[in-house]
Amino acid sequence: MAHTRHTGKPALDPARVRSEFPVLSRFVRDGKPLVYLDNAATSQKPALVIEALDEYYRHYNANVHRAIHHLAEEATTRYEEARTVIGSFIGAENPREVIFTRGTTESINLVAHAWGRKYVGADDEIMLSEMEHHSNMIPWQLLAKATGSRLVYIPVLENGELDLDAYRERLSSRTRLVALTQMSNVLGTINPVADMIRDAHRAGARVLVDGAQSVPHMPVDVKALDCDFLAFSGHKMCGPTGIGILYAKEELLETMDPFHGGGEMISKVSWHEATWADLPHKFEAGTPNIADAIGLAAAVGYLSSLGMDDIHRAEQALTAYALEALRTIEGLRIYGDAANRGGAISFVMEGIHPHDISHFVDQDGVAVRAGHMCCQPMMKKFGHPAMTRASLYLYNTRDDVDRLVEALERVKGFFNRAT
Ligand code: PMP
User: Fold this and answer.
1) Domain boundary at 261, 286, 305, which?
2) 219-244 confidence digits (pLDDT tens)
3) Which residue segment(s) compose the domain that 243 sits in?
4) Average pLDDT along the chain
5) Which of 334, 320, 318, 316 is nearest to 408 (CA)?
6) For position 298, which CATH number holds?
7) Same domain, 250 and 363
8) What distance in angstroms lies between residue 85's CA and the mean position of ligand 1's atoms?
9) Ligand 1, from 140, 233, 241: best to mutate by most atoms within 8 Å of Cβ?
10) What would the pLDDT profile of 232-290 be if each residue is shown by its tens digit?
11) Which of 116, 211, 257, 405 has its CA 20 to 30 A from that of 348?
12) Could you tell me the distance, in angstroms and rounded to a whole number, from the CA of residue 269 to the centre of ligand 1?
């Protein structure tokens, strides 16, 4: 059995991991075994996550924090345990710093409203990178419009890395916030966020890290990074859809205004005003997504049992294999050549539209994404309205990559004959 160099723990065994994800044994398109390479969009779910949801609804479904009956106590305990498990997964000091949201998008919108409207003024700047997902762009555009503040961008270089010199030059005492993805969903680039956070703090700015593509794939520790905010989604990390996390430093959450108003988030209410509940409940108005919070904790438990270091290492090795294999295809150009990168691999093929590529490889059972990948301005900068993206996760194998390459060769053959 292969062992990891440092820990002596068995290395990730993709065959065993695969067997834990029911959908991966499916056949699609008239009997083709599924090759799922759309993980940056959403990951598949292991049986134990599906079972955790099933168990909640079958055995202890009740609303949390309200009633005193047995089921309500059980549901509340499990919901709050989930918060603790997820908090320690990202190195948060206190579960009070962990807010359940619907996902990365809602987490970022929460910060833009509850922090941004209070602390960003007309002369201030918000700094983003050119590789941000629309989820980490539009909330800041809306905030800039509402407050009269200005968006400043960190350029992406040809090789898919950020222009860090430009970043340092553009940081100033006007920069109120830097909102930055840790891993690009298009280029795969892993940004040096720890260093960038240090620079931002020196300039007096706060930093929000979009962890939608990093938290599922590599160890992320909010204390080591010293980020002020971290947003991520459950569904990209083996958890359910409709649940995600906003981590924020307690001192920030304490002074921020609420995002949504309603039940659960109040302390005392009179006809014309109200006071707010303690953290984290101040930011969780209404009945929360109880089942999926518990499901996400199950996913986090699963990822932790495999080890985030091992998951990352296995993905890096598979990414290197995939990049090399894809580069053998003539006329295929990969965008994203950063020295430090993850397994989101976007490419174009000469003379073939990305939607056609996606459609044709799907006939062979291979699921990839085609489109602008929610990064329209960056796509435009690179001169392509759309690309094709294959994105890897812990259950993918070299065989999956080989099937993709064979399917792409067939697409090429078809279009070459047709022209
Ligand atoms: N940021 C990045 C980098 C992403 O890849 C995504 C999802 N594609 C998001 C934000 C938005 O995540 P969600 O749709 O789960 O809110």
Assistant:
1) 305
2) 999 999 999 999 999 999 999 999 99
3) 50-305
4) 96
5) 334
6) 3.40.640.10
7) no
8) 22
9) 233
10) 999 999 999 999 999 999 999 999 999 999 999 999 999 999 999 999 999 999 999 99
11) 211
12) 36
Ligand 1 atom, smallest distance to 185 CA? 5
Structural domains in the chain (count)? 2
Phi, psi at residue 85, to the nearest 5°? -60, -45
Tokens of 93: 């000091």
Pocket of ligand 1 (CB under 6 A): 40, 103-105, 133, 135-136, 181, 185, 210, 212-213, 233, 374
Residue where a domain terminates, one of 275, 305, 335: 305
pLDDT for 58-94, tens place per residue? 999 999 998 899 999 999 999 999 999 999 999 999 9
Which of 182, 178, 170, 185 has its CA nearest to residue 133? 185
